[in-house]
Specification:
- There is one protein chain.
- The protein is α/β, with parallel strands linked by helices.
- It contains 10 helices and 17 strands.
- The protein has 2 domains: about 130 residues, Rossmann fold (3-Layer(aba) Sandwich), CATH 3.40.50.720; about 220 residues, Dihydrodipicolinate Reductase, domain 2 (2-Layer Sandwich).
- The strands form 3 sheets. The chain has a 9-stranded mixed sheet with strand order 16-15-14-13-7-12-11-8-17.
- GO terms for molecular function: nucleotide binding; oxidoreductase activity.
- This is Gfo/Idh/MocA family oxidoreductase.
């Protein structure tokens, strides 16, 4: 086995997703023993004393700090994981790029297309590789769907359906956190969930060129949070002051692909019932494929002679064999992030973009931007093209 390069990792924000990143780096060594890189957890930043203690004692970071700038400046930190709330993404990413340090950032990368473009351009100018948290594209079932499309097995693609329905904000007692404020989050469910759908659609079928959309806020007031660390599922005070929800709870899009295919997408953060119903359906003249994250390892495939059959993901599906020996034993969410982590580390060592890139995130942000313009104009809007290295056609 060739010698492995040790990569020093810095983490900014030790919340749920920061902890997922840290675990994923460690899991790369287990599931990809032939990886050209081994991650070393060097420094983690968080303003919370408890989070810093967890980073040190549970995750194994060598040191911690309350100031994320110290992570960027640390000479032993080679790459940076950016898991902050949206309103800090730009500042941290630009600092990492200025320091010449590749970064793995969560989506939405910026609070809209303008910030996303700025981050992507900074990465390109710095000559660094990047990674963005589009983890659903790494599901082995999605890898098979992409193979079926790109090989022509489904025939010319006619139409696509993407639906991302969740209930994390369905309770009107849910606290008015930063996610509901345009100045802090940017868009609502469009950036939070439908950006995943845009990436899935483009990664499997091809670029989206035009959008017609509508959005709605169903819960317009929420109680103010009682805790500064309030998150997705935190409740506000039962009686007390409330604030205005500024961004959308629901979005629906009609889209046109460059290939001539058409599609429909919708997403909700207030749907009562589905916890994480993230579905992708691709229809062609010779067959179709359907996948739902809730049935992560069970895509359905149909051809022109027979209806759907459920096909259990197995060793010939994407990176499945890195995690399980055979069909019937399931993979999970953290495994998708491990795939993402190893793609990022390989990108760094090999000096080529293999992980979802900052330009991929910019592309998804342009679809969100076009949807918001369409909602306002009540007309079709073109999706702007982006610059830089994307992985949509790798």
């Amino acid at each position: 086995m060739p010698a492995q390069q040790h990569i020093g990792v810095g983490l900014v924000s030790v919340g749920w997703m920061g902890r997922v990143h840290a675990r994923a780096y460690g899991a790369v060594r287990v599931h990809y023993p032939d990886s050209p890189a081994v991650a070393r957890l060097v420094s983690a930043a968080d303003v919370s004393d408890d989070a810093r203690a967890y980073a040190s004692e549970a995750l194994g970071f060598a040191r911690t700090t309350a100031d994320w700038r110290e992570v960027i400046a640390d000479p032993e930190v080679d790459v940076v994981s950016i898991c902050t709330p949206n309103f800090l993404h730009r500042e941290v990413a630009l600092a990492a790029a200025a320091a010449g340090k590749p970064f793995w950032i969560e989506k939405p990368m910026g609070r809209g297309a303008t910030e996303s473009a700025e981050i992507a351009r900074a990465a390109t100018e710095a000559g660094i590789v990047t990674s963005v948290g589009f983890n659903y594209r790494h599901a082995p079932a999605v890898a098979r769907a992409r193979e079926l499309v790109r090989s022509g097995a489904l025939g010319p693609i006619t139409n696509v359906r993407v639906s991302l329905l969740a209930d994390y904000s369905a309770d009107p007692r849910g606290a008015l956190t930063w996610r509901f404020q345009t100045g802090l989050a940017g868009s609502g469910v469009l950036g939070d969930l439908l950006s995943h759908g845009a990436d899935l659609a483009q990664y499997t079928v091809g670029s989206i060129e035009e959008v017609s959309a509508l959005t709605e806020r169903f819960i317009r007031e929420r109680p103010l949070p009682t805790d500064a660390a309030a998150g997705h599922f935190s409740l506000g005070a039962e009686s007390g002051p409330t604030g205005t929800v500024e961004n959308e709870d629901y979005a629906a899009l009609l889209v046109r692909f460059a290939s001539g295919a058409v599609g429909v997408m919708d997403s909700s953060r207030v749907a009562v019932g589905p916890h994480a119903e993230y579905a992708l359906e691709i229809y062609g003249t010779l067959g179709s494929v359907r996948w739902d994250f809730q049935r992560l390892n069970e895509p359905q495939i149909a051809n022109s002679r027979e209806g759907y059959r459920t096909v259990m993901a197995g060793p010939d599906f994407g990176d499945f064999s890195r995690f399980q020996p055979g069909q019937g034993t399931s993979m999970g969410f953290d495994d998708l992030k491990t795939i993402e982590a190893q793609l990022f580390l390989r990108s760094v060592v090999e000096g080529r973009q293999l992980a979802p890139s900052a330009s991929d995130a910019w592309s998804a942000a342009e679809i969100v931007s076009a949807a918001l313009r369409s909602d306002e104009s009540r007309s079709w809007e073109s999706v702007a093209r982006v610059e830089g290295s994307t992985t949509l056609d790798l």
